[in-house]
Design a protein that fits this description.
This is WYL domain-containing protein. By secondary structure, the protein is α+β, with helices and mostly antiparallel strands. The chain is built from 14 helices and 12 strands. Strands 1-5-4-3-2 form a 5-stranded antiparallel beta sheet, covered by helices on one side. Strands 9-6-10-11-12 form a 5-stranded antiparallel beta sheet.
Length: 412
Amino acid sequence: MAKRIRNFIDRAFSRTVDLELLHRLLSPHLGQIDFDWDGLPGDDSERREAIFDLFAKADLRFPASLQFALFNISTLSTDAGARIIQEIASEAGIDVLSEYRLENAPDDLRFTPRFIALVTWLDHRPVFDRALSAAAFLAHSTKLERDADREDVEPRHNEAGVQEAFAEAARLHFASRYNGQYCDVRWLEEEDLLRVLILHGSKAETKNVDQEGAEDTLKFREIVQSTIEYDPRRGSIAVGSKSAADAKKLVRLFGEHVLGDGDIFEASAKEELYTLAPLQRLGPAFRFRFDPEGEITHVALREVRVDEAQITATGRLRRSPWFLTLGDSENALKRLKEVACDLDVADVRIVHAKIDVTIEVDDSEIVVPVTIRPPRTVSMRDHSHERLILDMLEDNDIRKRRGADQAAAAAE
């Protein structure tokens, strides 16, 4: 926590932040943090240096309410956080920066993600709270994915008692697993996506701490976030959680309470969701296909790992005595052919592939690294464009669409 506080105000931010905004944030806590705002130097640069020193030395003596505010503000003090804030504010018809815009200064260098998060926390708390909940769905780099065993299953979360029953089932699960009492379930609906955020306790931790100059023991239970995203269009669910066991349980609870069938996702648990067969089949000639007029502008095959592991007749993995990992800025399979010219990619197993997806966002471009590990895992650090990337992988036959024949077989 203290590290997050120290990182909130860096040199660049301390030199440009509106000091009145910062004073509004700190004023309820100045006595507790022993900081004399009125005694700051008159020179602007010296005032800012003193404020920077305050945060550079931040520790757990900061009151809990201030730590809470700074932690949440820093969570949204990223490019992705700023985008989420502005999208939610725009939907609500709010311009969070309207009071701070200067005439004839369309490109205001003050409007960094930290500035936007701070202003929204102070002046537009409902927008901030919604953005904070939305940002939780970007936190898990890898999610548990499952497909329903039949199509056109509509969630019934708006029926009387359904949300309450799911929340109680989730609370009982986490209470029995971690002996915690806190469980807060939040429902967020989009046009074609249902999202559920579950804030809950985790395994208790004990640490030795410095308590006013004396050694003491602190026992605490961290509040963590689990997320559920259900796409009725695909009949697919993605669950992000620190624990694989918790993720599997949440899949079953969602199926049982929200879709009316606790086993609806079970069949897909054993199916191959991702495959690198197209790369293996075409080798160096493989190219990712995407709409040239769409948001994706480029996809580079940055890394592949190959070995000779095989699946035996009994379904067990026979390990390879060797593996080779090779990278390239554009086409790792082409580089593999050049480096190991006697190696035929069709005769080996591609263990994983790492790609860089370039996406156009607001007249600029961002690069999202994605790792594909068959049979059921894709991970990415930035989930802001997850659905766009998954659609692209489906178009390239890397993410498998669950066919009608699979759904029918599962139903039988």
